[in-house]
Amino acid sequence: MKKLFISQPMKGKTDEEILAERRKAVRSAERVLGETVEVIDSFFQSAPVDAKPLWYLGESLKLLATADVAYFVTGWSKARGCKIEHTCAVEYNIDRLEE
């Protein structure tokens, strides 16, 4: 079973929209990979109240380091955090799927 990291733009989206996109990403990844995946929980619903964008990115990169595959949801190329995650996935040879 592969560990799946999901990179998605979240700015301006409700928790429900984010979670729906994540469910769709999991289904898509499993279909492409032909196997069930273990999802790495990178949606920080209990982040510190004063957390800044770089805090989220730092935490995400730690989780990305544990992934076998990274899935990039539509719009990733316009979101600065997602672009950095994508660059790291490329540079550190983590397999990638793009929606």
Separation, N- and C-terminal Cα atoms:
21 Å
Strand fraction band?
15-25%
Per the CATH scheme, the topology name is: Rossmann fold
Low-confidence segments, given as residue ranges, are none
User: What structural class should be given to the helix and strand makeup?
Assistant: alpha/beta
What's the CATH C level?
Alpha Beta
Features:
single chain; 99 residues; alpha/beta; Rossmann fold; 4-stranded parallel β-sheet; 3 helices; DUF4406 domain-containing protein
What does this structure look like?
The structure is a single chain. The protein is α/β, with parallel strands linked by helices and 99 residues long. It is built from 3 helices and 4 strands. The chain has one domain (2-98): Rossmann fold (3-Layer(aba) Sandwich). It has helices at residues 15-33, 53-64, 80-91; strands spanning 2-7, 37-39, 69-72, 95-98. The longest helix is centred in the N-terminal third of the chain and has 19 residues, at 15-33. It starts with a strand and ends with a strand. It comes from Blautia ammoniilytica.
Topology at a glance:
Layout: E1 2-7, H1 15-33, E2 37-39, H2 53-64, E3 69-72, H3 80-91, E4 95-98
Parallel strand pairs: 1-2, 1-3, 3-4
Helix pairs in contact: 2-3
Brief description of this entry?
It is built from three helices and four strands, in the order βαβαβαβ.
